[in-house]
Amino acid sequence: MLFEESMSLLWLSYYVLSLIVLVAVYFALAFLPRLPRLVITWCVAGAMWMPAGYQLPLIEEGEFYTGWAPAAMVSAVAFLEHSTSALRGGLLWLILGIALGACVGIALWWWRRPEPYDDVSQHQSQEEDPQPTRRREPVIN
Question: What Rg, from alpha-carbon coordinates, does the chain have?
Fold first, then answer.
């Protein structure tokens, strides 16, 4: 059940809050054209949603606690603890998440891009209509 396991509830609440942040980022970038706005928004989504594994030493010698956390958090904690191996793994997953997010943003723009307009010149329309209708002036009897 969802409420019995606190880890699943924690991940669910994290993803709900990250969706709120993602919508806020999208609307905050409303001054940008659509392509850069989608790419930046999905890069942020990839950074927030990419998980990375981590390993923490326990009190007993040689035992470790392993788990999953967002790659940005794993990288930040590894940076603060000066752990190069954890930082390397966290940053690798973080960069991969950002790259995948950028690809999703470009794919969404490509899928929903505006169709090019076909400019029809006035000369071309006159050739298509050989007998133009004449305007009739109103007549008073």
Answer: 28
Q: What is the full DSSP assignment across 51-98?
A: EEEEEEE-SSTT-EEEEEEEHHHHHHHHHHHT-HHHHHHHHHHHHHHH
> pLDDT tens across 17-40, in order?
999 999 999 999 999 998 999 999
Q: Which residues contact 106 (CB under 8 A, 6 or more apart)?
A: 35, 38, 39
- Overall pTM > 0.90: no
d(CA 141, CA 16): 75
What are the percentages of helix, strand and coil residues in the chain, rounded to 5? 60, 10, 30
